Amino acid sequence: MGRPEITSDSAELADAVRRGERQALAEALNLLDNRRPGARQQAAALVAQLQREHTGDSGHLIGMTGPPGAGKSTLSAALIQVWRQRGLRVGVLAVDPSSPVSGGALLGDRLRMKTSADDDGVFVRSLACRGE
Predict the structure, then answer these.
(1) Mean pLDDT per 10-residue section of the chain, whose length is 132 residues
(2) Domain ranges for the chain
(3) Domain 8-52: which topology?
(4) Which of 30, 52, 75, 112 is the most exposed place for a label (fewest CB within 10 A)?
């Protein structure tokens, strides 16, 4: 497969993602999660655009895992609060495998995280795991 074609749509979406626009972040994640062939090409173009104009600023990537009730959401909420107090913007991408015991999600419950829904400096997105 050759280089993805960067269109004005992918460039506009990439610019909006860089500005931290919530709707653009949600749209970009939807696109990246979409498995249809056309969407895969668009997602590749978006990633290429973001990589092409990467400014060198980098964030931190932190992974959390554990059994139900271990405190993942509580810890996430505490970290978000500390980072926001420091003026940092926070994005949470929670991948939710279902618990075979309870049938519920192990991580990403926004209610348990108790983050402010109107805080523009926090973006929380939950994605269901497809068992892959």
Answers:
(1) 60 89 90 86 89 74 85 88 92 72 51 70 77 52
(2) 8-52, 72-128
(3) 1.20.5
(4) 52
